[in-house]
Amino acid sequence: MSHLKVIMPAAILLGGFLVCSTASFGKPEYVKLTKKPCTYCHVDSKAKPKELTEAGKYYAEHKSLDGYQEKK
After folding, report:
1. What is the separation, in whole angstroms, between the first and last Cα of the chain?
2. CB 52 within 8 A of CB 38
3. Phi and psi of 49, rounded to 5°?
4. Domain range summary for the chain, segments of one domain joined by +
5. How confident is the model at residue 4 (pLDDT cuts 50, 70, 90)?
6. Fewest CB atoms within 10 Å of the CB: 10, 50, 55, 71?
7. What's the pTM?
8. 62 exposed, middle or buried (CB, 10 Å; 0-12, 13-18, 19+)?
9. 55 near 70, Cβ under 8 Å?
10. Which residues neighbour 68 within 8 Å (Cβ) at sequence distance 6 or greater?
């Protein structure tokens, strides 16, 4: 009975983490296609993954980096 007092809360906590965790929407094929790191298109790929740089905005519009000119 004492094992059950430890196992049940641990199982519930683990289940909660699994249900509440967010899915990753990263696309490794973009890295393969563009040959650029994630930070080329994303401001901060960990803290703000949806905030895009100018290159990222261009890629979102054109589905390619062909024709993109970096601002210096």
Report:
1. 68
2. no
3. -65, -20
4. 24-72
5. confident
6. 71
7. 0.56
8. exposed
9. yes
10. 55, 58, 59, 62
Instruction: Work out the mean pLDDT of the chain and round it to a whole number.
Output: 81
The predicted structure's pLDDT at residue 14: 86
Sign of CA pseudo-dihedral 27, 23, 52, 60? positive
Residue 53 near residue 41 (C-beta atoms within 8 A): yes
Tens of pLDDT, residue by residue over 29-49, are: 888 888 888 888 888 867 777
SS3 of the chain: the string is CHHHHHHHHHHHHHHHHHHHCCCCCCCHHHHHHHCCCHHHCEEECCCEEEEECHHHHHHHHHCCCCCCCCCC
